[in-house]
UniProtKB/TrEMBL annotation:
One of its GO terms (molecular function) is peroxiredoxin activity. This is Cupin domain-containing protein. InterPro entries: 4CMD/NDH-1_regulator, AhpD-like, CMD-like, Cupin_2, HNL-like_cupin, RmlC-like_jellyroll, RmlC_Cupin_sf. Residues 162-245, 298-381 form the Carboxymuconolactone decarboxylase-like domain. It comes from Flavobacterium silvaticum.
Length: 387
């Protein structure tokens, strides 16, 4: 048995600059059609430029380092990063200026072939220091929470807009996520709901994939989407339907998903009205009673269409549906009257003040302060804090 715990002997200076230790755990003599070793670089140490005829994979296990492909900018690499290097690509890698770096190197070849070239000059290496100073510094907690939603995802914005990503990720995925105990699936589905009302197809795609990654079913994703129609409008939702279908096809999820309707044209009004009363109580009778004759049809539409066609569906329980509806309304903005009604509706189905505070907290990075604080004001009016 071979141990990879030790550093191993120093690497030859002909191929490396600075102090580098190489521990080859798998060699050509093992005849396993792969080379594998642990390479530890002291600060400022690095390889020469080189290529691998069969490509290479680097798995960073400790520290901070650099990787650069020929003609490309330097990438900052750190613990848990995976670098996939295509065959015959000229490149170098090593530790950063201030930190050591250790990686596992995997070469898919019995010969462990490496074509070595010239050393990386101090001038070329020092150019990476500018990139390192502007590199994204993400907290370990933020990294873990982000990776839970999107395993191994590498954002291009980390290279083009590092300061923004650093501030946002540390806030949204560490400080905000750490505020409360809202479970990850519910939190992800509610953010997903807000992206529909915010008309952000790009962010919706991210969170649709995230929801599936953390255990939401295709039906649950579709039901969030369908429920948005009576609140956001089909003109705004139809692009999200297409985006969802594209994602499902990419993930080999069969379309259409299982049907969830519980009503038909004959029962939709009756069942919808019953669902309204389940959530909002006797005030629904007052809404019918107080509606002018020329506006009464809107009450019928609310019962039969909004509730009968959508809210009565299976796939999501009533608590999640009410949270999703509130997420739509908060993200839309200018819906304070409806927000107040659905804050009370949430309370009626068991989503108390603390859960609604948790929801509003999690939506904050995605909908902004004005909409969130307007919703908080509505919450304090309908469900004031206990003194």
């Amino acid at each position: 048995m071979t141990s990879i715990k030790e550093q191993g002997p120093e690497a030859p200076t002909a191929y490396f600059t600075g102090t580098v230790h190489v521990n080859l755990a798998v060699t050509p003599e093992d005849k396993l059609n792969v080379g594998l070793g642990k390479v530890t670089f002291d600060a400022k140490a690095r390889t020469n430029w080189h290529t691998h005829p069969y490509g290479q994979i680097l798995i960073v296990t400790d520290g901070i380092g650099y990787y650069q492909g020929k003609g490309k900018s330097v990438q900052i690499i750190k613990k848990d990063d995976v670098v996939k290097i295509p065959k015959n690509v000229e490149h170098w890698h090593g530790a950063s200026h201030q930190n050591s770096m250790t990686h596992i190197a995997i070469v898919p070849s019995d010969t462990n072939a490496t074509v070595w070239m010239q050393a990386v000059s101090d001038e070329a290496y020092d150019k990476a220091l500018t990139d390192e100073k502007s590199a994204v510094t993400i907290s370990e907690k933020a990294h873990q929470n982000h990776n839970q939603l999107w395993p191994e995802y590498q954002s291009n914005f980390a290279q083009t807009d590092p300061e923004l990503i650093q501030v946002f990720d540390n806030f949204a995925f560490d400080e905000i996520v750490g505020h409360d105990n809202l479970d990850v699936k519910t939190r992800t589905l509610m953010i997903l709901a807000s992206t529909i009302a915010s008309q952000s197809v790009t962010e919706y795609k991210m969170f649709a994939n995230a929801a599936l990654n953390v255990g939401a079913t295709p039906v649950e994703v579709k039901e969030i989407l369908y429920q948005s129609v009576p609140y956001v409008g089909i003109s705004k939702v139809i692009d999200f339907v297409k985006a969802t279908n594209d994602i499902f096809r990419e993930r080999d999820i069969n379309l259409p998903v299982e049907p969830q309707s519980t009503t038909n044209p004959q029962t939709r009004h009756e069942k919808g009205l019953a669902k309204q009363k389940e959530i909002f109580g006797d005030r629904i009778d007052d809404m019918y009673k107080n509606a002018p004759d020329d506006l009464l049809h809107f009450q019928h539409y609310l019962s039969a269409n909004c509730f009968g066609d959508y809210v009565t569906r299976n796939g999501l329980d009533v608590q999640i549906r009410e949270l999703a509806t509130l997420s739509f309304l908060i993200a839309l903005g200018g819906t304070e009257n409806q927000i107040k009604g659905h804050i009370q509706g949430n309370a009626n189905v068991g989503n108390g003040r603390q859960k609604l505070i948790d929801l509003m907290t999690q939506l904050l990075p995605y909908v902004g302060y004005p909409r969130t604080l307007n919703a908080v004001n509505c919450l304090n009016e309908i469900l004031p804090p206990k003194k």
